[in-house]
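Question thread 4412

I'm putting together a teaching handout and wanted feedback from people who do this every day. The idea is simple: show students a protein as raw sequence, then show them the structure tokens that encode its fold, then repeat with a second protein so they can compare. Below is the first pair exactly as I plan to print it.
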Amino acid sequence: MINRSVCRFLPQTFDKILIANRGEIACRVIKTCKKMGIKTVAVHSDVDSSAVHVKMADEAVCVGPAPTNKSYLNMDAIMDAIRATGAQAVHPGYGFLSENKEFAKGSLLHIYTLSLLLLGYPVMIKASAGGGGKGMRISWNDEETREGFRFSSQEAASSFGDDRLLIEKYIDNPRHIEIQVLADKHGNALWLNERECSIQRRNQKVVEEAPSTFLDPTTRRAMGEQAVQLAKAVQYSSAGTVEFLVDSNRNFYFLEMNTRLQVEHPITECITGLDLVEQMIRVAKGYQLKHKQEDIPINGWAIESRVYAEDPYKSFGLPSIGRLSQYQEPINLSKVRVDSGIQEGSDISIYYDPMISKLVTYGATRAEALARMEDALDNYVIRGVTHNIPLLREIITHPRFISGDISTNFLPEVYPDGFKGHQLEADKRRELLASAAALYITTQLRSQKVLGSLRVPSSPIECNHWELCVELGEGHHSMEVTKSGNVYTVEVDGGKVEVSGQWNLASPLLPLTINGTDRMLQCLSRDASGRIVLQYLGTSLRVLSKLAAELNSYMPEKVPEDTSSILRSPMPGTVVAVSVKPGDTVAEGQEICVIEAMKMQNSLTAVRQAKVKNVHCKPGETVGEGDLLVELE
């Protein structure tokens, strides 16, 4: 068995390592280096000068301005930093220069890129120098190939400094399962079991787990042995990942080898007890592997959720920017790990990947790991940016996911019209309505007091009965609420719900008990109109008194904007291209402009045939979410 506390001081390794990356992966590498007694050098752009990884490192070097091609992809500047600091090795993390073979000639970490080229539609067009869903498009015909080539090459150049592409056969509706390998410079190589990575959006992984529910021992061993054979065939040395597509009959097809550390490596660490960053450093220095294949266990189950600054209600996640006004990781919970590179007050900008953190839970069984993930998501406090926690929670509690019935098409199959939030069953809806009513009344009662005393000492005895109306979506729900001590009894929709709890309304977390079951709510916002946004399965609603609800019926309704004649930016970003000018006639579906945010390009098209009236943007401009781009007649 492998000791989980495997990190210890290792004499005669490197004295100083430069981390050519940013964010959570840079923090992850720095933590391991500190455990090993190795000094660290962080590189950063000017906007990242106060980033967490910069504060953690022993030294820091600015390598350029915010755009990645002038900083984190600036090979000359990073090589200058290596020479200036005397770093003996470089850890590239993932993304940026991690798979750039030219950069590898200047570092002590060996980089190789292997890919399979197959022809015949459908095909996958992808960046040869990186991954993470960037520079990747699926093409079913010649027209889509031309368009995919344009966008993929531009994204690849922006993300990795290399616009070269691969074209490979696309297998429809497969599972994406990968094998972690570890090899040294002495001809030894191990496979460290698999990771199930099928839950994806825009070809980028969202939820991963180890092991896979789908593989049997025979298939696992066959995939592992072939992955090791590949690593040995190219004399690979370090941690790497061999990716496969697996069909419904457990036939597996080689996809590519990622010659770097993967984003999802923590779940492998959880079930094997190995620190992969430590192993990479040992191998780079020339040590032999300490373990044999028979030493590699599968201890329990681990789940990883990628927490992004994204709006999950827009194409399963369009970027969101802003400053983290409140940030609290659920690390107080048992067997929960959070890998992040941000803190309260950090800015999420348009320049870099929108990942906030990797949230990892593990347990003796899959059910235990999933239950912990549900609790961890409920206890994760993020304010200031829109995030994808509602989508993550919906995925891990969906019956198809729980049963293991998944593929890379899970999200579009389960949500063909896009993610609309959790569809509340009758009992969950009553729980939510009752909780919102209890929170509303608690807020009203607190507003009547000053320093623990009633605002007017001679006021009557506190009211303990209320009639309220709650607006949830298009529905209106009348309810009666009574209070006894800390218990609210709510009659709503023909049922009775008891809600209890001693709430600190200044806290972002609101623990309560609903009909005897402990729940965790977060009040994301509330305003004077009675609108309350709760993070309870990610739902927004409004609570009004009976009188306010009656008066509200006389308020004029806001006329929705005619979106057929205007084009607004669906996200903050940079205008890459404008394809029209005033007076042009555009057809339905024709491209009007392209917006790039966080290295992903999005083509915005006309919803109808019309003449262009005005163009309010030009290439190179930065736009915000909702900004007017083009008007049509």
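The second pair follows. I'd like the answer to focus on this one:
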Amino acid sequence: MSEMERLSSSKWTATAASIWIQSAAGSSYAFSIYSSALKSSQGYDQSTLDTVSVFKDIGANAGILSGILYSAVALNRRRIGGPWVVHAAGAIQCFLGYFFLWAAVTGLVDRPPVAAVCLFMFLAAHAQTFYNTANVVTGVHNFSEYGGTIVGIMKGFLGLSSAILVQVYDTFCKGKPSTFLLMLALLPASVSILFMPLVRIYEAHRADTDKKYLNAFSAFALLIAAYLMVIIILENIFSFTSWASIATFIALLVVLITSPLGIATKAQKFESNRLTETLDPLLENPEPRLASSKFSASEEPVEHEPEMLVDRLEDMNLLRAMGSVDFWLLFIAMICGMGSGLATINNMSQIGQSLGYTTVEINSFVSLWSIWNFLGRFGAGYVSDYLLHTRGWARPLLMALTLATMAAGHIVISSGFSGNLYVGSILVGICYGSQWSLMPTITSEIFGIRHMGTIFNTISIASPIGSYIFSVRVIGYIYDKEASAEDSCNGTHCFMLSFLIMASVAFFGFLIALGLFFRTRRFYSSIVLKRLRHSPRQ
């Protein structure tokens, strides 16, 4: 096999390809760019636009079908198809959804009924779950020992993709939201189709190099996040000329393409050299080796563990998982964490206006949310792996700690002191993002990898459910009540009660996650840690 063929068929190249796809996949986060154009072109009032937005949130989080498809085509024994089928399904939905929205906004088709717009908005956002499922679950299969790190990287780049797409808009489509819609129909779908043949599942052997080169991908992710943060801040302070915008985007594009490929190439060459060095003495003195089993001999006494632990040794399907207490503890915790976090960003502009922040400051809060979201997604995955490997801490403990910190962030926002949104948005943004990497990883460990895509996408529905409850039934209701005498509400009283309620909800989520930790603590020490220590090495 040539060096190029070996490189194109490795888990490292699959990781690089997944990063490229994830970097363009978060189009649902860019709704605010074209929402005004959609509203004016279709003659919608704010309530109708909010209805369309709800279908966007549902589509971006209801990924059950993507999980079912992944299990059917990528994990069956005959391996009919592969992750590329899931990517292709996502690309088709992305193109159809955004192309229809572009046609409606530009007048290419007669003004469609609201139901049709909601359907295609759902379809466009639903594509994101197919990209995400294919990349995240494949990554966990290829790096099962460092599931938290690989999920953090994949989820992190999905979070950063909104900032990357905003850079595309500022560079090529600024002031032309309809053109941006056409770009959303073409760019994510094209990137997915181009790189999907490289995203494959490889035999899950543990290599000494895994941690080293996953750390390299992690450092690259932090570099991209830092670059985008600097650009966002500068763009909110200064007015960039067109050539400056193009230059910054080209620099971003070059780094985004070359760095993952460079890391993948180095990792594959290193592993190839190590494999050659290992095989040479074996060829001279061959010795028979027993096939490695799923668990080592030291793990055999697990048969005598309580039934709850034995059940977790088997991969559960969705229905069986939904029959367990652990599933519903995770689901409730995510309603509290993801729901209150999403409600915060959905109302960030209104909060800033009521507290007297300038337009520049409000734009900075909204733009930088993607960075804090990334840091939470990436950081929680990396830190949870570190704590699990070095101290044996079960991941639900970190989930509980982040939910407690999120409660503190909600209290900071409710307080209304000078600069509260700076501190509060950072705390809530990081803790919100952390749930998106912790939840899928915990799902894979408690319920097994085989049906991970279906199960974690089902739990993800907690995000739009929680967002609806807190945005509409809590924040919206209380804001309208406070502003009943005026057209708008100004002052700390507009959102104080809402965020105190959400702080209480986040604290309740902390208690639920703490309960999950105590329920799974023995399982992590008896099963998960032994899997990591006794998994086969290359």
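Top answer:
Good format. For the second protein you could add a caption like this: Confidence is low (pLDDT under 50) at residues 287-304. The longest helix spans residues 242-284.
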